[in-house]
Amino acid sequence: MSDRLRVAVDREACCGSGNCVRTVPEVFDQDEADGLVLLRQPAPAEADWAAVREAAYNCPAGAIEVTQG
Ligand code: SF4
Question: What pTM value is reported for the model?
Answer without folding.
Answer: 0.94
